[in-house]
Amino acid sequence: MDDKLMLMIPGPTPVPEQVLLAIAKHPIGHRSGDFSKIIGECNEGLKWLHQTKNEVLTLAASGTGAMEAGIINFLSPGDRVLVGNNGKFGERWGKVAQAYNLNVEIITAEWGQPLDPEKFREKLEADKEKEIKAVILTHSETSTAVINDLETINRHVKAHGEALIIVDAVTSLGATSVPVDEWGLDVVGSGSQKGYMMPPGLGFVAVSPKAWKAYETAKLPRFYFDLGPYRKTAAKNSTPFTPPVNLYFGLQVALKMLKDEGLENIFARHLRLTKATRAAVKALGLGLLAADDVASNAATAVAPTQVEAEEIRTVMKKKFDIALAGGQDHLKGKIFRIGHLGFVSDRDILTCIAAIEATLQELGYESFTPGAGVTAAAKVFAES
Ligand SMILES: Cc1ncc(COP(=O)(O)O)c(C=O)c1O
């Protein structure tokens, strides 16, 4: 049956009909008063979502573009930076920093494990000359579905005093609390196709006053991603270049939906979806890559041992039109990932788990009691 695809990947995520309909409207002039009002409303909504009074700038870019902008606007060639790498995205920020000739030190953890805040503390405390200009890390490492302890690492950065903290919140924002002002996060990057319940195409960067100060002396090359013009025009509810007007129509509606749900409810929903998914996976006897206490609320990485991860994905897609994400790099074929980020409900999890059970039966996996996964997920939903 056509047009029945169910996206259970951690981005792009499902988009509500209201948002799709808004995007389907005729474009309007990006310098018109009507559009200016939409920009103003979106900017206010973005601040609300980020729990900040700082500017949150919108770029025509994916999450990677937002992060690249977040790195290049505040640093100069040769600046020493610490980059956390415990997965595909942390690894990417190291590559971006290297591409711009920063002096990069990578702090690694095995993929599937969280970054160790102590390793950051040691480096930051030892830096008496205050040479470290930034710490760059991924909050929710989507490739392994691990959440890093941003709060603690940020505390060590604050104790250092000089370094900026630059955060990839691409799959934590809108799923997990990212209290930008309370924690004093300097630069926070994200992308529309994740917790925003939007299609891909918009990148967002929140910038603190301390980061703007660094901007004044930062010398890395920048043009399209020079955040100065974005800041200046945002103050007038405008943009420096032609923005994807229709995506703003959608963003306006999506932010309103999020606001109506409320931050606490959004976080509670994602936590519930995560708990239910993990309970179901355990009940089915399939392994989990990440431990419970470091599980991201955006996705669950399943590491089956008695059945091929890729076979599960293939049957799920072919028979049930449910898209699951695979593993990346050395985790390819070893894990599959169930996304539960954005416009996802309890029903979606129950459907997905039921389809996984049917898939396991089809693949001849016998080490589970049919119904056990759905029962475990339903129990979590009944209790929360
Ligand atoms: C944590 C994280 N960071 C960065 C990105 C990259 O975002 P994009 O693909 O929008 O450039 C992703 C995408 O999945 C992600 O999950």
What is this structure, in a nutshell?
With 384 residues, the protein is α/β, with parallel strands linked by helices.
Please describe what this structure looks like.
The chain is α/β, with parallel strands linked by helices and about 375 residues long. It folds into two domains: about 15-260, 3-Layer(aba) Sandwich (Aspartate Aminotransferase, domain 2); about 260-384, Alpha-Beta Complex (Aspartate Aminotransferase, domain 1), CATH 3.90.1150.10. The chain is about 45% helix and about 15% strand. It has helices at about 15-25, 35-50, 65-70, 90-100, 115-125, 150-160, 180-185, 210-215, 225-235, 245-260, 265-285, 310-320, 345-360, 370-384; strands at about 5-10, 55-60, 80-85, 105-110, 130-140, 140, 145, 165-170, 185-190, 200-205, 285-290, 300-305, 320-325, 335-340. The strands form three sheets. Strands 2-10-9-8-5-3-4 form a seven-stranded mixed β-sheet, sandwiched between helices. The protein has a five-stranded mixed β-sheet with strand order 1-13-14-12-11. Helix 11 (about 265-285) runs antiparallel to helix 14 and helix 13 runs antiparallel to helix 14. The protein is globular, with a radius of gyration of 21 Å. The structure holds pyridoxal-5'-phosphate.
What number of structural domains do the residues give?
Answer: 2
The molecules bound to the chains, other than polymers, are: pyridoxal-5'-phosphate
Rg estimate, integer Å: 21 Å
Shape verdict: globular
| Count of DSSP-assigned helices | 14
> Taking strands numbered 1, 2, ... along the chain, how are they ordered across the largest sheet?
2-10-9-8-5-3-4
Q: Average the pLDDT over all residues and give the rounded result.
A: 98
Overall number of strands: 14
Q: In the CATH hierarchy, what is the class of the largest domain?
A: Alpha Beta
Report the structural category.
alpha/beta
CATH topology type of the largest domain: Aspartate Aminotransferase, domain 2
Distance between the termini: 34 Å
How is the main sheet built?
A: 7 strands, mixed
Following the backbone from N to C, one meets helices and strands in this order, namely EHHEHEHEHEEEHEHEEHHHHEEHEEHH
**Percent of sequence in beta strands:** 15-25%
- Low-confidence residue ranges: none
Write the CATH architecture name of the largest domain: 3-Layer(aba) Sandwich
CATH superfamily of the largest domain: Type I PLP-dependent aspartate aminotransferase-like (Major domain)
